[in-house]
Specification:
416 residues; alpha/beta; Aspartate Aminotransferase, domain 1; Aspartate Aminotransferase, domain 2; 7-stranded mixed sheet; 14 helices; 11 strands; 42% helix; binds pyridoxal-5'-phosphate; PyrdxlP-dep_Trfase_major
């Protein structure tokens, strides 16, 4: 019955093309719907009872990760995963403090609002156990593309934070970052930055937690996990997964090392989660991995992402409001600026553009502290035709905006 109610393929594809990033392989994918339906007809139960799906799924996920990340905990949301990652880090290190990147968002639980500058800056502020490091943004950050060694410079910022924390008698449990800071402005940290940060953090007795909730599962094209863009020599101590993992079904995961899991288990307090890792969720997780493989979505992300980047870079030459186009696979940011010299965020213009795009039935949002970075993170079935359609529409709208600006007196929204 469920399958019959699925929209016909044409409509499904249309929906897929406009669905949010958590629907990684597209709305109502028949394989995912079928996997959920079949398992629902058989059995669903809590994870206190062993089920092959859970073991099979952990095994399949482990094949995508470096060997040392071999223990898996299943949960229902990205927030739950990050909260557990925090507990694991603290239990293992016996330290409390966390270093995060500026403007990060890691989830809606109390513990995660505390480590999300994007949220806590508008609430009660920064807790004494939280330390904020600058975003390794080589376009508008502290150290830019012309810096001779931005990797070391940004990593040294973390080193300084650790030294300052130690002077106050504080101890670092974790460095917690998205592998590609999304809310922070679709940033691609320079390769080698994580390795250097991990070195400083490990020396301080802390662990490295990579939040792959937005950026994992083949989206970056070249690799299955975004942290792998840093180089083969980098392996986080904990990886958290969510959003695309279940293609819209509430599922999340924490992967970690044996040592960290053993320290967690040593408390004698078992990890139990009623719905996390239930047989239906795991059937869906397995089906998502199958679809990514069967439909070659990782290679597709590279091909379509490169094509989209090329089109967007052509727009950069044409429209001076586009200051930077950066990305990997189907994770792309377009940084809109008011002026080349200062790279002042074109916040109002970005807002205006996404509103006009919505009128053309294209949903795009903005990110970054200046809310001026157009965020491209479509479902991975997004194709070249879609890319062309979106970029042509952006071109048309930017041309209209420029014409309006020329014909009007300069106003605050027409300053480019
Ligand atoms: C990077 C990142 N981490 C964690 C979360 C929290 O995930 P959830 O909303 O599934 O709890 C989000 C959600 O937007 C996110 O973007």
């Amino acid at each position: 019955k469920l399958l019959c109610e699925c929209p016909p393929r044409g409509i499904r594809e249309e929906l897929s093309n406009h669905s949010p990033r958590s629907l990684a392989v597209g709305h109502c994918h028949p394989d995912i719907v079928k996997a959920a339906h079949e398992q629902n007809q058989l059995l669903n139960t809590n994870s206190r009872y062993l089920h092959d799906n859970l073991v099979d799924y952990a095994e399949r996920l482990s094949k995508t990760l470096p060997e040392k990340l071999c223990i898996f905990y299943f949960l229902n949301s990205g927030s739950e995963a990050n909260d557990l990652a925090l507990r694991l880090a603290r239990q293992y290190t016996k330290h409390e403090d966390v270093i995060v990147l500026d403007h990060a968002y890691h989830g809606h639980l109390t513990s995660l609002i505390d480590i999300s500058p994007y949220k806590f800056r508008n609430l009660e502020g920064q807790k004494e156990w939280v330390h904020v490091a600058p975003v390794p943004d080589t376009y508008r950050g502290l150290y830019r593309e012309d810096h001779e060694d931005s990797v070391t410079a940004y990593a040294n910022e973390v080193k300084n934070i650790i030294e300052q924390a130690h002077k106050r008698g504080r101890k670092i449990a974790a460095f917690f970052a998205e592998s590609l800071p999304s809310v922070g402005g679709q940033i691609i940290p320079p390769a080698g930055y994580f390795q250097k940060v991990a070195e400083h953090v490990h020396k301080a007795g802390g662990v490295f937690i990579a939040d792959e909730i937005q950026v994992g599962f083949g989206r970056v094209g070249k690799h299955f996990w975004a942290f792998q863009l840093q180089g083969e020599d980098f392996v986080p101590d904990i990886v958290t997964m969510g959003k695309p993992i279940g293609n819209g079904h509430p599922l999340a995961c924490v992967a970690t090392t044996k040592e960290i899991a053993e320290a967690f288990a040593a408390t004698g307090v078992e990890y139990f989660n009623t719905f996390g890792g239930n047989p239906v969720s795991c059937a869906i997780g397995l089906a998502v991995l199958d679809v990514i493989e069967k439909e070659h979505l990782q290679a597709h992300a590279t091909e379509v992402g490169n094509f989209l980047m090329k089109l967007l870079k052509e727009q950069k030459i044409k429209h001076p409001i586009i200051g930077d186009v950066r990305g990997s696979g189907l994770f792309i940011g377009v940084d809109l600026i008011k002026d080349q010299a200062e790279r002042t965020p074109a916040t109002a213009e970005a807002e205006h553009l996404i509103t006009r795009l919505k009128e053309e039935y294209i949903l795009l949002s903005t990110d970054g502290p200046g809310r001026n970075v157009l965020k491209f993170k479509p479902p991975m079935c997004f194709n070249k035709e879609d890319a062309k359609f979106v970029v042509d529409t952006i071109d048309k709208l930017l041309t209209d905006i420029e014409k309006e600006c020329l014909s009007q007196e300069k106003t605050s929204t027409c300053s480019t």
